[in-house]
Amino acid sequence: TSYPPSDQTQLFTAAQRGDLGGVAMLLRAGASPSTIDASTGWSALAAALISGHCRVAEALLQAGAPVVAADHRGNTSVHALAAGASASDGDEVGLAFARQLLNLAPDASAAAGAANVDGATPLHLASQHGKRDLV
Fold it and tell me: Which Pfam families match (predicted)?
């Protein structure tokens, strides 16, 4: 049986694809910025960050997306930022967003020190992925 996608599934997909207009529309329609993908435990915020969509991530943060929500492997949105693709919206935007995330999100400092199930913190991942500006 096939079910129509819910607003939550659509929000996660739009975030992962970097569809800022779609994300904004779904949030206005009542989709929760705390959307979690059941199969991975990824948040919509983490999906945007791992794909390098900083403007989408910023919209999700402004709507109240939690930074410390961890996936099934213990990765938070800060892990996704550290390990993710370079910002598709431009490296300067990505670096500025990383600083904003770490400085303004009330729970980002806790997430910045969190280790995943492999023992890797966001700092480890940033170093492994050559993101010297985040280290």
Answer: Ank (PF00023)
